[in-house]
Amino acid sequence: MVDATAVLTRTDAEPRGTKPKRALSGRNIMIYGTLFVFSLYYLLPLWVMVMTSLKGMPEIRMGNIFAPPVEITFEPWVKAWSQACTGLNCDGLSRGFWNSVRILIPSVILSIVVASVNGYALTFWKFKGSDIFFTILIFGAFIPYQVMLYPIVILLREMGLYGSLWGLVLVHTIFGMPILTLLFRNYFSTIPEELFKAARVDGAGFWSIYAKILMPMSLPIFVVAIILQVTGIWNDFLFGVVYTKPDLYPMTVQLNNIVNSVQGVKEYNVNMAATLLTGLVPLFIYFVSGKLFVRGIAAGAVKG
Amino acid sequence: MAEARRVNRMWRNMNAKIAAIPMVLTTLVVFVGGTFWTVLYSFTDSKLLPRERFIGFDQYERLWSNSRWLTSIENLMIYGVLSLVFTISIGFLLAVAMDQKIRYEDTFRTIMLYPFALSFIVTGLVWQWILNPEFGIQSIVRSLGWETFTFNPLNDPKLVLYGLLIAGLWQGTGFVMCLMLAGLRGIDEDIWKAARVDGIPTWKTYLLIILPMMRPVFITTLVIVAAGIIKLYDLVVAQTSGGPGTASQVPAMYVYDYMFQAQNLGQGFAASTMMLLTVLIVLIPWAYLEFGGKKHG
Amino acid sequence: MTNSIEVKDLTLNFGSVSVLKNMNLNVAEGEFVVLLGPSGCGKSTLLNCLAGLLEITDGQIFIKGKNVTWAEPNERGIGMVFQSYALYPQMTVRGNLSFGLKNAKVPRDEIEKKVARAAEILQIGPLLDRKPAALSGGQRQRVAIGRALVRDVDVFLFDEPLSNLDAKLRSELRVEIKRLHAQLKNTMVYVTHDQIEALTLADRIAVMRGGIIQQLAAPQEIYNRPANLFVAGFIGSPSMNFLHGATIDGGQAFQLGDLKLALAGYEGGIVGARDKVILGLRPEHLVVQDGAEPGVTIPAMVELDEPMGADSLVWLQAAGTQMSVRVPVERRMAPGTKVHLKVDMSKASLFDAGSEVRI
Ligand SMILES: Nc1ncnc2c1ncn2[C@@H]1O[C@H](COP(=O)(O)OP(=O)(O)OP(=O)(O)O)[C@@H](O)[C@H]1O
Ligand SMILES: [Mg+2]
Q1: Cis-peptide, bond into residue C238, ω within 30° of zero
Q2: Quick check: is C357 in a domain?
């Protein structure tokens, strides 16, 4: 895993294969043909989602899901946002969206603060046994969540946080810890130790070195961590189901409840609009962050 | 003197020790403690609430005679093997194609990787829609004139895993491609020059020289993908809800259902312990290969 | 004279590996001590212990008479300069210089004054508002020195401060450090690999090996009278020539095979008869001549001639081993030429082959 992060930063390097000589050589046709076919596979669902979400139900029933809408309507989007029904209520995805936002912000902040401090302590302030904790933490990333699901229910119940927003924030902080700690530790260990020593000679203590020296130097890795956590937490489903109550369900859970609810007539256009709405936040992050995203997911790979 | 020194040692780096408390608690209480707790209680007959009535391996016997669990395990194995083979081979193939000094490399990468940003719920729901027999691929091919064409994996117990696989590959191959591409670019440029000087054809260089050199990247990818497969849950929930019938059940779903729906905690604990065991079977050989030979300082 | 630094029985272990062993070291006030030794011998470790950056296993450290064994780095009255400069990249030069003072809660106007003074001493005034990335290597190291300077510390610790600079800058800054020391009269402990730096800067040099100080003495003393074989071989480039032989005639002469050299004039006085001794002769203390003088010269044959600018290094086969001699560069010698090397016994060193200690 450690390798994956290091290795991925090299994606930006130069390509290695031989330079094609003629534009239409057999080799070129094969390469571009392959890439083109696969691109269709990757793009198709996005296309279908967008097209379906812009059609009326009658048009969907008659036509072809790949065809662009004859008559564009935004009705499904409005409905998905504010009227779609889960099994329990009919106020659309907006509730889930705001829940997700309320979960996201504290979770991202808390998990990153805790993990970056861990990484910092593990790099520059090793204490007896600190490496053992780190090893367990990394192994923890591989333990199936199912194993720890119930013990955490008990812990949260004891703390009076079960079913609350802060309970879920805590869960995201815990499960984000291995990968983020690894990310920060790896980054901090590239910072020369002499810098840290100089700061100590200058009389800076634990927190002041962290806040005044390390943080300002490490902005890129904080950005990577934010990307990683925003997409990861936004896309979470399992923890949302297990640790919150229906009125606090995050967007993914609500989306699933809307689309897979058995009651009523299926409104595929609304479903697709809802699906797109849920995917919008991570897609936005993805398109804005570009190459940093690649680094982020490489680091997040262990999360599985 | 000695006493003062000991006190001094304890107070040194106090802030660092305080700062490490969340990590220490998480590792000890949640990761180690939680895991042991679950394993321990998998030997009880806990129902709605955990209780300490130990019944030996009964839960495991029940587990392994439950057809739903057996289906789950079988599904996971089939899905796992297929998914590993296809993600890694497609990922490598695409990476090699991307490595040919192509134009629009960034565009292609953006297209291949965006599904990875989406949640499994979104992925599952889109593909549920595309594979919908009334409106999706099947209906389109039929409307083109091929009236008897059938492609309805999500409603066919024999094919449902392939339906999941199409969606799973859609989401994950781009990422594996990125890992592989990075691996390819990490190989020393001189290897290529040497191969060219020796007159070895490009395809042969990839097959005989580059592929073996990429071993570490393959292993890392394998572990990452495998760890993800074992946790497979959201995708199935969204795309098939485990159906038709129990045809696409997976272990994670079994655990959730027994713990939080069927009020049979003991059974859920036993199933999750089995999941842990599976992970260890994947992880221990890898950890052994990766760290066993050389001692890390 | 008071001691500025006193190290008593200092021991430091990394796990089971002992890096510093029972070390004792006193540095007088205003003294410039250079730590010299092969890579990995514990020079940086010793410096880090003095700075309080490493927790020592055993022993005590006093700075200015105060026991600082358990004190934090900033409480010890030390400033430290590192090889990689270790400037805070996100801060300007001014920010770098004032960071320590701010941590010590020094009032603003006083910080200004101190920074201005340091900038003047080190001639970095015009750079104060730049970031380290916009400085040259030499300028960066000046700022790093300035960071120690502003804090008005009693002791400066340098860990190979000039190693990252090119040869020209290195000699410039070397002179500067010497000037600084003359001006400030602080105590300085300075780690280097560079013998020229050590010989030119030091009041005393401590030659270390394997965590033990082998010899602590003035540069000339170390050069002329190395305490043991290791110091003799380590100091000087090219290395001292060693001849393995015996002393005969009650210590009147050194014998190696047919070769016999009179020991009259040897500084160590009468050495007595010993079976196994090693005679050390520096390349610059041998004179090449055509004629033999019994008891004073060694017959030799030229193997290779390496002109090095000011002088030239000649490698010869003599007394059954390879020896090197420094000669004026005009004197070119063809391989195969037979010559004689005249020994100046007053500048030679004799070691016991068993204990390797100077006799
Ligand atoms: N944190 C550490 N843990 C274990 N061993 C260490 C550690 N730091 C240094 N050592 C060991 O201690 C010995 C002394 O190291 P030190 O850095 O003091 O050498 P040095 O004399 O400064 O060498 P150089 O000239 O290369 O800088 C080395 O053998 C090194 O491997
Ligand atoms: Mg060193």
Answers
A1: yes
A2: no
> Is residue B76 in some structural domain?
yes
Q: How many helical (H) and strand (E) elements, i.e. helices and strands, does chain B have?
A: 17, 0
Is the CB of C55 less than 8 angstroms away from the CB of B8?
A: no
Rounded to the nearest whole angstrom, what is the distance from the C-alpha of residue C20 to the centroid of ligand 1?
A: 10
- Report which of residues B292 and A56 the model is more confident about: A56
**Is 90 exceeded by the pLDDT of residue C201?**
yes
The enclosing domain of B224 has a CATH number of: 1.10.3720.10
- Which residue does chain C place closest to B13, by CA atoms? C72
- Please report whether residue B8 resides in a domain: no
Contacts of C70 in chain B (CB under 8 A): 5, 8, 12
Residue A83, CA distances (Å) to A192, A198, B162 in order: 56, 60, 34
Same domain assignment for residues C270 and C228: no
Which ligand 1 atom is the nearest neighbour of the CA of C83?
27
Ligand 1 atom 7: residue of nearest CA: C14
How many Cβ atoms sit within 10 Å of the Cβ of residue C258? Answer: 8
Q: How many domains does chain B have?
A: 1
Whether B42 is covered by a domain: the verdict is: no
- Look up the domain containing C27 and give its range: 3-234
Return the H-helix or E-strand segment holding C239: none
Which of C215, C234, C253 is where one domain is finished?
Answer: C234
Residues A144-178 as b/e (b if ≥16 CB within 10 A, e otherwise) read bbbbbbbbbbebbeeeebbbbbebbbbbbbbbbbb
pLDDT one digit per residue (tens) for chain B, 297 residues: 445 555 566 666 788 889 999 999 999 999 999 999 999 999 999 888 888 888 989 999 999 999 999 999 999 999 999 999 999 999 999 999 998 888 888 899 999 989 999 999 999 999 999 998 888 888 888 888 888 888 888 888 999 999 999 999 999 999 899 888 888 887 888 888 888 888 888 888 888 888 888 888 888 788 888 878 888 999 999 999 887 888 999 999 999 999 999 889 999 999 999 999 988 887 788 777 766 654 443
Partner C contacted by B100 (CB < 8 A): no
Structural domain including B289 reads 60-296
Q: Is the pTM of this model over 0.90?
A: no
Confirm whether C23 is domain-assigned. Answer: yes
Separation of CA A37 from chain center: 27
The full set of domains in chain A, from first to last, is 16-73 (no CATH), 95-250+275-303 (1.10.3720.10)
Q: Do C147 and A198 touch (CB under 8 A)?
A: yes
Using CB atoms, pick whichever of A174, A234, A259 lies closest to residue B30: A174
* C192 within ligand 1 shell (Cβ under 6 A): no
Mean pLDDT of the region C154-183 = 90
Q: Cα–Cα distance between C53 and C78 in angstroms, integer?
A: 11
- Identify the chains in contact with A, defined as 3+ C-beta pairs within 8 A: B, C
Q: Are residues C156 and C175 in the same domain?
A: yes
Please tell me the total count of domains within chain C.
2
Select from C312, C300, C308, C306 the least CA-distant residue to C338: C300
